[in-house]
Write a structure and sequence with these properties.
single chain; 309 residues; alpha/beta; Quinone Oxidoreductase, Chain A, domain 1; Rossmann fold; 6-stranded parallel sheet
Length: 309
């Protein structure tokens, strides 16, 4: 089958045997490139791996599904509490095991979420980043009427803007590029920050973005760290002086009977313009080099780059 594998630090189109083993076979329809994929490559953590954890496709009976790329044991304390993202033996497809930048993959049936009517798998790979945003916002416990700011307007920042609007919140968003500003407005957010905020969502994850987030936050407010800290970050005394609470988040879960993936898919079904706004570039698998080049160059107009399989 066709696939994209990391060889000598580069995303490389390959022909490889079809997957075998226990689980459900998924015919992949779309697979997105995540910013974390780029970091994983740069840190040498996925050499030899088929990438792809933003995945949608069809099962053998034709059911359209999004794939929650987290294999869980189902019986550790974290799994029983609904926190599969903290499973004692968690397997992340596309990171610790081969993922969805391929024609097919096999995953446990617990990873599959039937797509709502009207959501095509050709756009449903963005359910995964939307689920990240759902989880990150939920972790902050933002209430109706709260003043919300988002630092960064890459895919996760824009997903956060979309989720905030779906939850009745009106986010102000700090965006660097013109195409990101236009996307913020299409999603119903406001470009630029003004004053102090109850909740600031850091969608970048750097020393600089954390400093910006703490500056934008009101005293005793909350910074939701949704962007991943790939390198150590320094936090200055402003955190203490303002008594700001930092709430990190990772992936998504189903705690309390509330599935972040289910909510993300429902938001996409209710707001189809999210897909047309976020997905800016599409490539076949055999154009892997061009696809990853586009994903790295945010100034070129790329937001979400997706493989059409």
């Amino acid at each position: 089958m066709k696939a994209v594998r990391i060889i000598d630090g580069a995303a490389t189109f390959v022909e490889t045997p079809a997957p075998t083993g226990d689980g459900v076979l998924v015919d992949v329809v779309s697979a997105g490139i995540c910013g974390s994929d780029l970091h994983l490559i740069d840190h040498g953590l996925v050499e030899g791996r088929i990438l792809g954890h933003e995945i949608a496709g069809r099962t053998p009976d034709g059911t359209a599904v999004s794939v929650e790329p987290v294999g869980r044991c189902g019986h550790c304390n974290n799994c029983e509490a609904g926190y599969a993202n903290h499973c004692d033996s968690m397997v992340a497809f596309g990171i610790f095991a081969d993922g969805g930048m391929a024609e097919q993959l096999i995953v446990p049936d617990t990873c599959l979420h039937r797509l709502p009517n009207g959501v095509d798998p050709s756009v449903a790979s963005i359910v995964e980043p939307l689920a990240v945003a759902v989880h990150g916002l939920h972790r902050t416990q933002a209430r109706s009427g709260a003043r919300i700011a988002i630092i960064g307007a890459g895919p996760i920042g824009l997903a956060l803007a979309a989720v905030c609007r779906a939850e009745g919140l009106e986010p102000d968003v700090s965006a660097r590029h013109d195409h990101q500003r236009a996307a913020v407005e299409r999603l119903g957010g406001t470009v630029g920050l003004n004053g102090r905020y109850d909740v600031v969502l850091d969608a970048v994850g750097t020393t600089e973005s954390l400093a910006d987030s703490i500056r934008a936050c009101r005293p005793e407010g909350t910074v939701g760290l949704v962007g991943t800290l790939w390198d150590p970050a320094t936090i200055d005394v402003g955190l203490c002086l303002k008594e700001v609470q930092i709430v990190p988040s990772t992936m998504y879960c189903g705690a309390g009977g509330r599935s972040d993936f289910y909510r993300a898919a429902a938001i996409l079904a209710d707001h189809p313009a999210i897909a047309s706004t976020l997905v800016t570039h599409r490539f076949p698998l055999d154009a892997a080099e061009d696809a990853f080049h586009a994903a790295r160059d945010r100034s070129s107009g790329a937001i979400k780059v997706v493989f059409e399989v």
